[in-house]
Amino acid sequence: MTAVHGRTIDIQTADGVADAYVAYPDDGAAHPGVLVIQDGFGLRPSLRSLADRIAAHGYTVLLPNAYYRNGRAPVVELPDFIDPAERPEIFQQVFPMIRELTPERLRSDVAAYLAWLADSPLVAAGKIGVTGYCMGARLAVLAAAMFPERVAAVAGFHGGPLVTDTPDSPHLIVGNITGELYFAHAGEDHHMTAEHIAQFDKALEAAGVRHRTEVYEGAQHGYTQADTSAYDPEADERHYRELLALFDRNLRG
């Protein structure tokens, strides 16, 4: 593992300025780019630590504040340990911001993030990897489908909803994805039922997308998030193994 440098940057978007965290190996070299899409709780120390760990394996990692239209991170004041059962008002604060992330806004934002990655001397030439968590997994699929020429690998962990009855459901546009996809669903997750998982897999197979999906049995929705009550250390370590293997296969020449 390489020493990592991390800092906050600003990225100009069509709707304003998005604050973001960038982490990269402290070796002066350019490395393959990775875009991390946050969970519903937002950009915070635990997600910065996640970005640092990916960067330590030889990647330049960009972690934007998806809620930048509502302010700089942290947009919502969060406790050091998040237990939604004890703090239901947190969801009342974040749900309106989640709903504001329409496909049109996502396309505009991701275009700005990809432009930053393409222009940065910290990032090696070539396609990037994308990974998302909870709601970010859904957004990661949409981003990979919107920019297939830029995304070589896309991963999602305890993500949802991936199958809905709306026209912008991720499972309807997976045929646009040209990179390899890995999804790890939580075994205990009402956001993605067994039926939803089967529908998502069927859509990937029908579209001919290179993919592997797994269910981490016993893990709860949010199992990778170390500052939450859903955290599962064993499932989290499995997530890192699979994620880094995916990126190594697809982002290294």
From TrEMBL:
InterPro entries: AB_hydrolase_fold (IPR029058), Dienelactn_hydro (IPR002925), Dienelactone_hydrolase-like (IPR051049)
Keywords: Hydrolase
Dienelactone hydrolase domain mapped to chain residues: 19-249
Annotated SUPFAM superfamilies: alpha/beta-Hydrolases
Pfam families: DLH
Gene3D superfamilies, per database record: alpha/beta hydrolase (3.40.50.1820)
MF (Gene Ontology): hydrolase activity
Keyword Chaperone: no
EC number(s) reported in the record: 3.1.-.-
Stated name of the protein: Dienelactone hydrolase family protein
Record organism: Nocardia beijingensis
